[in-house]
Amino acid sequence: MDIKSGFVGTVGNTPLIRLDSFSRETGCEILGKAEFLNPGGSVKDRAALYIIEQAERQGQLKPGGTVVEGTAGNTGIGLAHICNAKGYNCLIVIPDTQSQEKIDLLRTLGAEVRTVPAVPYSDPNNYVKLSGRLAAELDNAIWANQFDNLANRLSHYDTTGPEIWAQTEGKVDAWTAATGTGGTYAGVALYLKEKNPDIRCVVADPLGSGLYSYVKTGEINPQGSSITEGIGNSRITANMEGVPLDDAIQVDDPEALRVVYQLLRQDGLFMGGSVGINVAAAVQLAQDLGPGHTIVTVLCDGGARYQSRLYNAEWLATKGLAMPQ
């Protein structure tokens, strides 16, 4: 019998989905790794599991302990699920700019949630730095530290990358994904480049992030802003150090919205905002490479966590955006 062992045993091995409408438009195979089908609903389940199990192996986390993290939501949701499954407490520090759906879900899952003002990473009260201090003050606690904990990218080097390689039978020409911590992009890029150095690895980046300018010029120079959550960065995390960066594609909010709504209306996929950035970058990459290529990206989470924002015309209007027709 093929039976998985609880939540933990169900993480990973997600399908690769052909995005039919975009594939037809471009003449390429545009494939999305269906990470929204992980048991916690996002790609971050993989990193959360690796971070906790690494801490267990190293003796840093003992029975009844606490996992502390600063997160824009999805990593915290994955951690909370796994803490429930393994008997740990979970303390999440989250910027107050994140969707109410994610904050409510974290509390439903039993995590202690502290919302804090969104301030730059350079500020000592940035949510990431604050979570690190809180962890240091507690007994039998770890700081997940997803941005600079290499267990994050290792989870994708060990699992996501090999799955993509096997599912495409090695016939992949390009990989693109947005980065927040950098774990997903980095782990997959490192693995795929080892298998075939000719695979193009391209960062997808929203406005407001400095990674596009970093790849293009070597300088981190954020411009503009974006409604997308949990992606983009103004620094190079440990997970992104030494990682293949063949190019970068910048995607603005109207284009990300257009893609998200096309996925919903033509492909039947109800996705979050980061998916709009990822798939838009994959489409641009397909147009750059020309017909006949295979481009893989990640469908990192579903749309329900953003329903009051991305799928709400009134909220979009407050950001100067219109719901695509």
UniProtKB/TrEMBL annotation:
Signal sequence range: none
Pathway connected to this protein: Amino-acid biosynthesis
Enzyme class, broadest EC rank: transferase
GO biological process, one term: cysteine biosynthetic process from serine
Domain of life: Bacteria
Residue ranges annotated for the Tryptophan synthase beta chain-like PALP domain, each copy included: 10-301
Named cofactor requirement(s): pyridoxal 5'-phosphate
GO terms assigned for molecular function: cysteine synthase activity
PROSITE patterns: CYS_SYNTHASE
Chemical reaction(s) catalysed: O-acetyl-L-serine + hydrogen sulfide = L-cysteine + acetate
Keywords: Amino-acid biosynthesis, Pyridoxal phosphate, Transferase, Transit peptide
UniProt-listed Enzyme Commission number(s): 2.5.1.47
UniProt xrefs under Gene3D superfamilies: 3.40.50.1100
PANTHER family on file: CYSTATHIONINE BETA-SYNTHASE
Protein family (similarity comment): Belongs to the cysteine synthase/cystathionine beta-synthase family.
Name of the protein: cysteine synthase
Naturally occurring in which organism (per UniProt): Prochlorothrix hollandica PCC 9006 = CALU 1027
